[in-house]
C-alpha cells in the first residue's frame, strides 16, 4: 500500500463496496455496511459506515466476551437496546459496548435510514452470547461459526486435569 491508500475519502467510496448483512436468527436484522478499516489497511480494528433501513435491527441481541464494539450516529433516529432497556438514538450519540457488558442491539424506529459509524476490535478468542436465544457462538474456522446451546456447555475448572499422586 502506498501512503495515500491509508486515507479513505467518502468521494472515493463506490456503492458496490456496500454489502448486506442479516443475522440468520433474527428476521428483523438487516444492515448495509461499507468497510473503511479494511480499505485503509487495518487488520486489528474494524470500522464501517452502516445503514439500517426503517423498521430493521442490527443483529440479534448479543454480547461479546472479548471484543469491544461502538457506534456513532451520523443521521437518522432509532433506539439502542441494553438488556431490557431501550434508549433513543439521535445524530451525534455515541454508544460503547464493552465485553461482558449488557447485551445490545440497534433498531431503526424511524421512516428514514439510520446511518452509523460503527466499529470494534478483532481480537481472537471472542465468544458471542445471545441471551434471548440461549446460544453461545464462536469462530469454528475461517469461514464457519459454531452455535452451541448455552445450557449444554459444561464449565470445568482446570484443577480437574491436575492430579496429585
How would you describe the overall organization of this protein?
The chain has 165 residues and is an all-beta fold. A six-stranded antiparallel beta sheet has the order 1-2-3-10-5-8, with no helix packed on it. A four-stranded antiparallel beta sheet has the order 4-11-12-13, with no helix packed on it. It has a three-stranded antiparallel beta sheet with strand order 7-6-9, with no helix packed on it. The mean pLDDT is 93. It has strands at residues 19-21, 31-35, 45-52, 63-64, 69-75, 78-82, 85-89, 94-97, 104-107, 114-121, 127-130, 135-141, 144-149. A hairpin with a 2-residue loop joins strand 12 (135-141) and strand 13. It has no helices and 13 strands. It has a single domain (3-123), classed as Jelly Rolls. 0% of the residues lie in helices and 41% in strands. GO terms for molecular function: metal ion binding. Residues 50-117 form the Cupin type-2 domain. InterPro entries: Cupin_2 (IPR013096), GPI/OXD (IPR051610), RmlC-like_jellyroll (IPR014710), RmlC_Cupin_sf (IPR011051).
Summed up, the helix count is: 0
Encode the helix/strand succession as letters: EEEEEEEEEEEEE
Helix fraction by DSSP (H/I, runs of at least 4): under 10%
Oligomer classification: single chain
In total, the number of domains comes to 1
Could you name the CATH topology? Jelly Rolls
For the report, how would you describe the main beta sheet? 6 strands, antiparallel
Content-based structural category: mainly beta
Number of strands: 13
> Terminal Cα separation, in Å?
58 Å
Protein name: Cupin domain protein
Keywords: Metal-binding
GO molecular function, one term: metal ion binding
InterPro entries: Cupin_2, GPI/OXD, RmlC-like_jellyroll, RmlC_Cupin_sf
Amino acid at each position: 500500500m502506498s501512503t495515500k491508500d491509508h486515507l479513505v475519502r467518502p468521494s472515493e467510496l463506490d456503492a458496490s463496496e456496500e454489502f448486506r448483512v442479516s443475522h440468520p436468527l433474527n428476521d428483523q436484522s438487516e444492515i448495509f455496511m461499507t468497510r473503511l478499516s479494511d480499505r485503509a489497511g487495518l487488520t486489528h480494528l474494524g470500522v464501517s459506515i452502516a445503514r439500517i433501513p426503517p423498521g430493521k435491527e442490527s443483529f440479534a441481541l448479543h454480547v461479546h466476551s472479548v471484543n469491544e464494539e461502538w457506534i456513532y450516529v451520523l443521521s437518522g433516529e432509532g433506539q439502542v437496546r441494553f438488556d431490557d432497556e431501550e434508549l433513543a438514538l439521535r445524530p451525534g450519540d455515541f454508544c460503547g459496548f464493552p465485553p461482558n457488558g449488557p447485551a445490545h442491539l440497534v433498531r431503526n424506529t424511524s421512516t428514514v435510514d439510520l446511518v452509523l459509524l460503527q466499529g470494534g476490535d478483532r481480537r481472537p478468542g471472542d465468544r458471542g452470547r445471545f441471551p434471548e436465544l440461549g446460544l453461545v457462538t464462536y469462530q469454528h474456522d475461517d469461514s464457519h461459526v459454531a452455535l452451541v446451546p448455552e445450557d449444554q456447555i459444561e464449565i470445568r475448572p482446570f484443577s480437574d486435569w491436575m492430579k496429585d499422586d
